[in-house]
Amino acid sequence: MDDHALILKHPLRVRMFHYILVISFLPLALTGLALFFKAFDEPAMNLVMRIHVVAGVVLTLGSLGFFVIAYDRVVLFIRRSFAVTVNDVKWFAVLGGYPQKFLLRKKVAVPPMGKYNSGQKLFGACMLTGGALLIATGWGLWGFPHLLPHGMAHAFGEIHLILGLFLTLFLCVHVFLGIYMFHDFKAMFLHGRIPYAEAREAAPLWVENELVALRKE
Amino acid sequence: MGKKDYQYMENPFQVTRREFLSITGAIAAFTALPAVWVRSRVTKRNNYLRARAAGLYLDDRNAKIRVSHGNPVVTKIYDEFAHAPLSEISEALFHTRYINRSKGIA
Q1: What pLDDT score does B1 carry?
Q2: Residue numbers of the domain that contains B86
Q3: Number of domains in chain B
Q4: What is the distance between the alpha carbons of residues B70 and A137, in angstroms, rounded to a whole number?
Q5: Does residue A68 belong to the interface with chain B, where contact is any CB pair within 8 Å?
Q6: Of A72, A86, A100, A130, which has the fewest CB atoms closer than 10 Å, so is most exposed?
Q7: Which 8-state DSSP code applies to residue B96?
Q8: What's chain B's average pLDDT?
Q9: Does the residue B16 lie in any domain?
Q10: CATH of the domain at B98
């Protein structure tokens, strides 16, 4: 195998959806924090709330659009994110080797991973379920609070708050490690491709089991 | 940018038909069940509100005194004590002023 060969890791549809997530979820997280901490005076808070709502609508429409246009990718993502193997337990036992790498400058043996490592799988599962709940509760609180029983509206608010804070914290880890894996970062934001050698190092099971060659070298 | 820019891609047929249908079923169930639950709770709440409103309208229809100026106790107070609506003593005793207490609630 040619280590300089390139693999299409993130197809255009996925990259476009990721862009929609970036331009909607980041403003949602920031404005959500501002709303939670009541960071500004009243006119500014009104503007923050408007930005929060607009970004929420963008996130909803983007997610529904991706669900319709790229349903095969949604199914694939769910299968990958929710498939737990013994390798995931071993991966979490050493936390992917990242703390050892960052804190001790030591490389430890990490079990072979598929396209997503166990941390990414957990992040994906949390984002999928948590994101869906955030969208549903957000619409309930903003669009139809008058239709909801009082107790349910209160529960929606609590769920929205807790999941929002949890996913915002998780997002910080995702952004940090996303930039750290720079080949993957460039692939997601630019061209979708990663070098074969990089993929074989980070995702050997994916390279071994899920890839097809387009042409002979 | 085109297919010539890379030499490998994911096998597009890696999800079996059984897996595809199972995951679709799970998505449908996890979407439909909460929606049905929320709908049943909202319907139950609406039925309660309708019954309560119907009860209030029924009470109103059956009430002998339906307006404040037709209440003999109120007319007696004005006749014997407060003289007339908006009189000096009425203003002093029956009226109130707006006080913003919203800060205390937060």
Answers
A1: 47
A2: 64-106
A3: 2
A4: 48
A5: no
A6: A86
A7: -
A8: 89
A9: no
A10: 4.10.260.20
Global pTM value: 0.81
B68 and B55 within one domain: no
How do strand B8-10 and strand A6-8 relate by DSSP bridges? Answer: parallel
Number of domains in chain A: 1
- Of A19-23, A207-211, B89-93, B99-103, the poorest mean pLDDT is in B99-103
Range of the domain at A179: 10-210
Q: Which residues from chain A sit within 8 angstroms of residue B27, using beta carbons?
A: 74, 78
**Pair B95, B105 in one domain:** yes
Q: Does A18 touch chain B (CB under 8 A)?
A: no
Show residues of chain A in contact with B15, CB under 8 Å: 72, 75-76, 79
Residue A178, number of CB atoms within 10 A of its CB: 16
**Amino acid, single-letter form, for residue A146:** H
- Are B91 and B73 members of one domain? yes
* DSSP element (H, E) containing A117: none
Residue-wise pLDDT tens digits, B18-42: 999 999 999 999 999 999 999 999 9
Q: What is the pLDDT of residue A27?
A: 96
Instruction: Note the pLDDT of residue A216.
Output: 58
Instruction: Please indicate whether, in this complex, the C-beta atoms of A211 and B11 are within 8 angstroms of each other.
Output: yes
A80 touches chain B (CB under 8 A): no
Instruction: State whether B46 and B72 are in the same domain.
Output: no
Provide the CATH number for the domain around residue A39.
1.20.950.20
A185 HSE (CA, 13 A, CB side): 9
pLDDT, tens only, A65-114: 999 999 999 999 999 999 999 999 999 999 988 889 888 888 888 999 99
